[in-house]
């Protein structure tokens, strides 16, 4: 490729060179090609016609014309013209782009960038023009479905391209077949190098870019509101990858025919997953299923996907069918702990690591831990994947063999999954979050409400915070007058108590209210900032009334049941009392009729209907008996 030759080796001045490929695009033989700089003078770009329109702007066919002292170049390019940004922000975006330009040029699986310019105040990104895209190919093939071998082949190219961008810390966030271009060798090239990610933190005025974090059909749950349900991370692209492969295999995008609101409801609120076609090779099905885990920490990374696709491609028959894998059933979530093998494979133990028994994901620490604390003494040979390790248990004079998946690494007192807070609070995000990783050198990543991406810092800036688990009851703290998220009130005033049904990867709590009878469109669940709520438990309720009120929180039916029971008991008691009084009065009347005359005197002050009832009651009781 012409541009690659230019980037690789500096060409001596005045030495002419023939560029291979792209003969139509290069009209003039050049000498001393310029040093690659990202900035393109606006006059060097000549727009021809629009070739597409996307969420982030339009794509135009254009020519890039460069003239220097001793060289001249013409290239046919595709120019992505972004929707207008404020002037300062335009500059900010261009600077971000310039920082990435050379790194992207070294990538094999990412579209070749010509540079960036500003035309009529709009950011223009010029890139090599490619003849086709996967979206167009899907539209051309029979029934819109790729052969499995083709889907795997393109999937491998795609995973490699994504991996390259992830390696420099970029997320793509907009993976979809129209952004997968095809080069002259029928290889998939990523046409979007993370424009939504570059736009993060830039306030957007255009309503067209409100959904700036992706295209709804392909968006992961955390992508819809990353500062609330986030953070977005590398695994966010695994979801988009899974969606794109499904489209290659079925010919239809996920959630085809649904409105944006319906997709939001399916993906975010109901936690539904796109349908996976049956009959796929086990390893591929397994890894795609993993891409649709709701908690991003449970999803595979690109290298896991690549491994599954590459190993399967070898087994696929040339006619598009497939052979094997031989009967191995792959594990899903490990029993009851909530972790997938993808989560567990993100960290491997080394000899000398401090470890302790792993707690269930978002669950209570077990009462008794096999390894409260220990040191890894040695690794079994297959530790790479779910092997065992020998652990010297601290304070006890013995070594035990434990499966690696049952242990978590503790570094400077922290383990992934711990609840943490910053020693110095930052008003830009919630005070409490969840630790996603802590490296041996102390680099820590934390998900906080209010941040769209992971907080990255040193573990020395953190301290352990109170943990919250699924199943606990919580209520807004008395000193919080306006919680971050809407929270229902009791009918008699005061905050309702709810039960945690889910803990999101940034520590945001999803809380249900089993004690409230929800009628109609009222939301059934609320979100909560963990720093703003306190736990409510039967043991800590101070008095009998509070304890009873807490029982009411367990189910909305408790209250009507208690009222019914109370009424029933009341009626029963008053009936009993009535009978006794009736019997006494009757006795008294009898005596007044000739015996002692006391009851008749008592009955005289009762209003006539009551007296009648009492007497009737007494009479009937006497009859039944
Ligand atoms: N470098 C390129 N060479 C050839 N065609 C391109 C190039 N880049 C984009 N296109 C095509 O231009 C069209 C519009 O692309 P664009 O990326 O703007 O839209 P989109 O993918 O539908 O949405 P989004 O803005 O979300 O990426 C698509 O059909 C795409 O395949």
From TrEMBL:
InterPro entries: Kinase-like_dom_sf, OCM_Kinase, Prot_kinase_dom, Protein_kinase_ATP_BS, Ser-Thr/Tyr_kinase_cat_dom. Residues 45-310 form the Protein kinase domain. Coiled coil: none annotated. Pfam families: PK_Tyr_Ser-Thr. GO terms for molecular function: ATP binding; protein kinase activity. ATP binds at residue 80. The keyword Nucleotide-binding applies. This is Protein kinase domain-containing protein. The lineage of its organism: Eukaryota, Viridiplantae, Streptophyta, Embryophyta, Tracheophyta.
């Amino acid at each position: 490729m012409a541009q690659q030759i230019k980037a690789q080796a500096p060409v001596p001045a005045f030495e002419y060179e023939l560029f291979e490929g792209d003969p139509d695009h290069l009209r003039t033989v050049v000498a001393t090609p310029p040093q690659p700089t990202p900035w393109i003078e606006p006059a060097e770009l000549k727009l021809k016609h629009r070739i597409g329109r996307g969420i982030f702007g339009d794509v135009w066919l254009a020519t890039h014309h460069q003239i220097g002292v001793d060289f001249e170049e013409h290239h046919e390019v595709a120019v992505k013209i972004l929707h207008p940004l404020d002037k300062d922000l335009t500059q900010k975006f261009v600077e971000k782009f310039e920082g990435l330009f050379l790194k992207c040029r070294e990538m094999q699986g990412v579209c070749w960038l010509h540079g960036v310019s500003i035309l009529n105040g709009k950011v223009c990104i010029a890139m090599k023009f490619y003849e086709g895209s996967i979206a167009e190919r899907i539209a051309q093939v029979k029934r819109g479905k790729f052969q499995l071998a083709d889907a795997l082949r393109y999937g491998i190219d795609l995973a490699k391209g994504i991996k390259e961008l992830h390696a420099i810390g970029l997320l793509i966030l907009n993976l979809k077949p129209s952004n997968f271009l095809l080069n002259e060798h029928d290889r998939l090239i990523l046409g979007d190098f993370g424009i939504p990610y570059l736009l993060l933190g830039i306030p957007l005025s255009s309503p067209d870019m409100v959904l700036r974090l992706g295209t709804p059909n392909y968006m992961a749950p955390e992508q819809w509101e990353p500062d609330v349900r986030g953070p977005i991370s590398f695994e966010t692209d695994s979801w988009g990858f899974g969606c794109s492969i499904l489209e290659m295999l079925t010919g239809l995008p996920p959630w085809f025919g649904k409105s944006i609101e319906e997709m939001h409801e399916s993906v975010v609120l109901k936690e539904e997953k796109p349908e996976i076609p049956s009959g796929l090779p086990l390893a591929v099905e397994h890894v795609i299923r993993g891409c649709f885990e709701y908690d991003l920490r449970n999803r595979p990374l690109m290298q896991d996907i690549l491994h599954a696709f590459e190993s399967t491609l070898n087994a696929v028959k040339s006619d598009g069918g497939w052979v094997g894998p031989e009967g191995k059933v792959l594990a899903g979530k490990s029993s009851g702990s909530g972790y997938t093998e993808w989560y567990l494979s993100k960290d491997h133990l080394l000899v000398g690591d401090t470890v302790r028994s792993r707690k269930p994901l978002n669950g209570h620490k077990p009462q008794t831990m096999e390894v409260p604390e220990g040191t890894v003494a040695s690794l079994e040979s297959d530790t790479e994947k779910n092997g065992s390790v020998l652990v010297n248990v601290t304070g006890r004079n013995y070594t035990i063999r434990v499966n690696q998946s049952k242990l978590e690494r503790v570094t400077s007192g922290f383990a992934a999954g711990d609840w943490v807070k910053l020693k110095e609070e930052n008003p830009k995000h919630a005070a409490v979050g969840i630790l996603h990783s802590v490296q041996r050198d102390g680099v820590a990543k934390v998900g906080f409400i209010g941040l769209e991406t992971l907080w990255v810092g040193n573990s020395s800036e953190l301290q352990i915070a109170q943990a919250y688990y699924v199943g606990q009851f919580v209520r807004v703290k008395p000193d919080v007058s306006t919680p971050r998220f809407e929270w229902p009130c009791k009918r008699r005033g005061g905050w309702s108590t709810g039960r945690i049904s889910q803990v999101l990867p940034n520590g945001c709590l999803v809380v249900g209210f089993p004690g409230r009878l929800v009628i109609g469109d009222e939301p059934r669940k609320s979100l909560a900032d963990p720093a703003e709520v306190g736990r409510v438990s039967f043991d800590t309720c101070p008095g009998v009334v509070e304890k009873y009120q807490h029982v009411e929180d367990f189910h909305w039916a408790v209250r009507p049941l208690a009222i019914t029971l109370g009424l029933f008991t009341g009626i029963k008691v008053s009936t009993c009392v009535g009978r006794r009084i009736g019997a006494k009065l009757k006795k008294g009347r009898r005596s007044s009729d000739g015996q002692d005359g006391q009851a008749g005197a008592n009955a005289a002050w009762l209003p006539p209907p009551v007296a009648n009832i009492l007497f009737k009651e007494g009479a009937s009781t006497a009859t039944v008996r």
